[in-house]
């Protein structure tokens, strides 16, 4: 891809959005980050995101999206136990209805205010939980809606859309930031950086992907 001007990365300091940040730095000549705060279980997440953006040297903007915690009860914003597994007939209670639609809308308005029309988000269809607002069709539809709503030509980029977690580690490695992503990002629902607590669903998913990738890499040698 030819380097385009600027991109706005939806950034939380986790594995996914940090990998996306480095992908954007490779593909765009300037990049800024936008981090939503919405009463996450661990405000540590926001501090880590800010520190990572500073370390990478990209502008970091926070946006208070705490209205999201007033809209519905879920385990990311309220002190209730997280579902370990996806229930057969519904989404896990880490699902925040409408979150990505709201976030993309906020992001597009913020991006536009900076003269930016490329938005990067780390959603993936391979996500274990299958959140409906992480799917490709949703992103295409939201992209079209944003264009119509503001009479602009936004492009929502989803570099992780078709990657499983092992392939995502491969992307970080290809981008030369494997150690950075492994040692500095926060994915754990219990707020522990790098390899995390090892027990929460996010840690298990991350570890499974990492182990798969490392096995693949060692066999390739
Ligand atoms: Zn954990």
Q: What does the model show?
A:
This protein has 221 residues and is an alpha/beta fold. The chain has one domain: HUPs (Rossmann fold). 44% of the residues lie in helices and 13% in strands. The chain is built from eight helices and five strands; from the N terminus they run βαβαβααβαβααα. Strands 3-2-1-4-5 form a five-stranded parallel β-sheet, sandwiched between helices. β2, α2 and β3 form a beta-alpha-beta unit. The longest helix is centred in the last third of the chain and has 20 residues. The two termini are 29 Å apart. 36% of the residues are buried. The site of zinc ion has 9 residues, from α8.
What is shown here, in short?
With 221 residues, the protein is of the alpha/beta class.
């Amino acid at each position: 891809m030819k380097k385009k001007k600027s991109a706005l990365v939806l950034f939380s300091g986790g594995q996914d959005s940090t990998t996306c940040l480095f992908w954007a730095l490779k593909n765009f000549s300037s990049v800024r980050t936008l981090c939503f705060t919405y009463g996450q279980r661990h405000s540590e997440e926001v501090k880590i995101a800010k520190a990572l953006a500073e370390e990478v040297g990209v502008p970091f903007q926070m946006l208070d999206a705490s209205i999201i915690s007033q809209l519905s009860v879920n385990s990311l914003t309220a002190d209730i136990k997280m579902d370990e597994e996806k229930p057969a007939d519904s989404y896990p209670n880490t699902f925040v209805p409408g979150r990505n639609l709201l976030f993309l809308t906020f992001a597009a308005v913020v991006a536009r205010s900076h003269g930016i029309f490329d938005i990067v988000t780390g959603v993936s269809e391979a996500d274990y939980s299958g959140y409906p607002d992480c799917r490709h069709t949703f992103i295409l539809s939201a992209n079209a809606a944003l264009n119509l709503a503001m009479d602009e030509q936004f492009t929502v980029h989803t570099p992780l859309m078709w990657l499983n977690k092992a392939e995502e580690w491969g992307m970080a490695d290809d981008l030369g930031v494997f150690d950075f992503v492994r040692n500095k990002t926060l994915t754990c629902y219990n707020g522990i950086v790098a390899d995390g607590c090892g027990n929460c669903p996010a840690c298990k998913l991350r570890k499974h992907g990492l182990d798969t990738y490392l096995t693949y890499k060692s066999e390739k040698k």
